[in-house]
Specification:
The complex is a heterodimer of chains A (about 240) and B (about 300).
Chain A (H helix, E strand, L loop, with lengths): L14 H11 L3 E3 L2 E3 L3 H25 L13 H26 L7 H6 L2 H8 L13 H25 L6 H29 L6 H6 L2 E3 H7 L1 H13 L1
Antiparallel strand pairs in A: 1-2, 2-3
Chain B lengths: L7 E4 L16 E6 L8 H9 L26 E8 L5 E8 L8 H5 L6 E4 L4 E3 L9 H5 L6 E3 L4 E3 L5 H4 L6 H5 L5 E5 H17 L6 E3 L9 E5 L18 H32 L18
Parallel strand pairs in B: 2-11
Antiparallel strand pairs in B: 1-5, 2-9, 3-4, 5-6, 7-8, 10-11
Classes of the chains: A mainly alpha (about 240), B alpha+beta (about 300).
Chain lengths: ~240, ~300
């Protein structure tokens, strides 16, 4: 392993730190008992998108229904939400474009992914019966979320522009923008609920991949066997 | 709000309608007889004076109309239309364009800000600027294209039917100013009776298609308009069958509850999944996991 001296750090003997340090620059590499899954830039992009998503969510929900009206208080009232929501939406869209470019090449759906994405495949996965040794770095569900997020963001952005600046548009287009904004949001948020659950409670070790950047070898072998073989194979060559 | 006139029947963005009214009140209405309007604009001036609205420069559009459309500082506009009649005749059609105060207001339906648009027990639909967030959704909800956004205040504005005058027993400023008696104000029942008698009169005078414009699609309006050419409301710039826009109703009545239920369902599905299947862990001691979690 080639070591690079970092400022203020002469020794890199710490067991955990070595993986985290490596994860600043590289991913898909084995460091000791761990594998770097998401390098720093990947994680920063993910959390930037997530941050803007949640600001959009919490400023949008009180505008959407009075059921969540209390959320407006978090930002200083509904007028603030009405001002903050579109600007955050712009920031979210930009962040999503960056994310799209960052992950685009890894998210192409394979034939195996399409099998995974059938109702039967998803049920098998959720029942932990899916035994697919051909799952690479991202499984079909993750790729679906990637494409759904991109599509939903496009729909939210376009309809949001109409809602933000309705004057040039006819009444029919304005009505359509509400419907598109709603449908895109409902599907997107429902998927994000699943995303958060699978990334935390349901699959221990997954949250660390997007926070610390690393996963254990056992985790990789369980969830992404093909990726595990590729990464450890590569590691042996080095 | 102790005044009975300001008791609220329904309010925007409320979970359960938001009514505060404890007493049934007579619904009030304005009566407009387009056939006796001479287009003098006294009502426009009276409206701007009473409501203390800003100046709106007159635009020369080649007709007896002051400006092209309603404005945040002009809640009442006498529209002028020149209409060639099927029999070769010719008509100058004046119509007082203003908020129609629908019984089923699309603006209130579309409004996301709690209490920003209210309907009082007396049927008047009003904007509460303190609660308005200036999102312009009421523009989309209105089938009559009435609410206007004021950039100066970042609020929406429209005719209040002079609720502040009505509440203390006065008639709206425009009615007070009208010199020909084509405007009247009273209970909706009285105004409808007046309109019906005027329609009979017009029919006797040869306007056999005369009718009262009180569209059922929005539950009727608290502005009752007599049209001499009642079979062609579009000649006056009025929609033939106005109703709360389908997109707005679909959004509020269908998508919103479906979405809330979907989120709750997704959340509980995850909880149920966790309780049933638990976390997905590698098999202990297994060289190669079969991917089965503890069930």
């Amino acid at each position: 392993m080639s070591e690079v001296a970092l400022p203020g750090q002469t020794k890199r003997t710490g067991v955990g730190d070595a993986a985290v340090v490596r994860a600043r620059e590289d991913e898909d590499v084995v460091v000791g008992g761990e594998i770097v899954r998401h390098r720093l830039s990947s994680r920063v992009i993910h959390w930037t998108v997530a941050l803007f998503f949640f600001v959009c969510l919490f400023t949008g929900l009180p505008i959407w229904t009075p059921l969540f009206g209390w959320m407006a208080t978090l930002f200083g009232g509904l007028s603030v939400c009405r001002w903050l929501h579109p600007w955050t939406g712009v920031a979210f869209s930009i962040a999503t474009v960056v994310m799209f470019v960052h992950w685009f090449s890894e998210m192409k759906l394979t034939g195996k992914d399409r099998e995974f994405l059938t109702p039967g495949g998803l049920v098998r996965y959720m029942r932990y019966q899916g035994e697919d040794s051909e799952v690479g770095k991202y499984n079909g569900g993750q790729k679906l979320l990637f494409w759904a997020a991109a599509l939903a963001t496009l729909g939210l952005l376009l309809s949001g522009i109409v809602m933000w600046f309705p004057e040039p548009f006819g009444n029919g287009v304005r009505q359509l923008s509400y419907v598109v904004h709603d449908i895109a949001f409902i599907l997107f948020f429902a998927m994000i609920i699943g995303h958060i659950y699978l990334g935390t409670a349901a699959e221990p070790g997954t949250f660390g991949a997007i926070v610390r950047g690393t996963v254990t070898k056992e985790w990789a072998r369980l969830h992404h066997p093909k990726w595990y073989r590729q990464v450890t194979g590569d590691a042996k060559k080095r | 709000m102790n005044s009975p006139g300001l008791q609220i029947r329904q309010s925007s963005a409320q979970m359960w309608g938001g009514g505060t009214g404890q007493r049934k009140m007579a619904v009030v209405s304005k009566y407009i007889d387009t056939s006796t309007c001479i287009g003098c604009k006294a009502c426009e001036v009276a409206c701007q004076e009473w409501n203390d609205l800003g100046n709106v420069a007159t635009v020369q559009i080649g007709s007896y109309q002051t400006v092209p459309t309603l404005h945040a500082d002009l809640w009442n506009l006498i529209k002028f239309n020149e209409q060639t009649l099927p029999d070769g005749g010719f008509a100058w059609l004046m119509r007082k364009d203003q908020c129609m105060h629908c019984a089923d207001p699309g603006c209130l339906k579309a409004c996301p800000a709690p209490g920003a648009i209210v309907q009082y027990e007396n049927g008047i639909v009003d904007v509460n600027p303190d609660a308005c967030i200036g999102c312009k959704m009421c523009e989309t909800g209105c089938p009559f294209d009435v609410p206007r956004y004021a950039a100066r205040t970042d609020k929406m504005a429209k005719c209040t039917l002079c609720v502040d005058r009505v509440d203390v027993g006065l008639e709206p400023a425009c009615v007070k100013a009208c010199p020909t008696g084509c405007l009247h104000f009273g209970t909706k029942d009285d105004m409808l009776a007046l309109a019906d008698s005027r329609v009979e009169q017009l029919k006797g005078n040869g306007f056999v298609q005369a009718s009262v414009y009180n569209p059922k699609g929005v539950g009727g309006t608290s502005v009752v308009t007599v049209l001499a050419h009642g079979d062609h409301p579009e000649w006056y710039g009025l929609p033939k069958d106005p109703h709360v826009p389908t997109g707005v109703r679909f959004w509020k009545n269908v998508l919103r509850p479906v979405g809330v239920i979907a989120f709750a369902a997704a959340f509980f599905a995850m909880v149920g999944h966790y309780l049933t299947f638990g976390p997905k862990k590698p098999k202990e001691g297994g060289e190669k996991s079969r991917g089965e979690g503890p069930v």
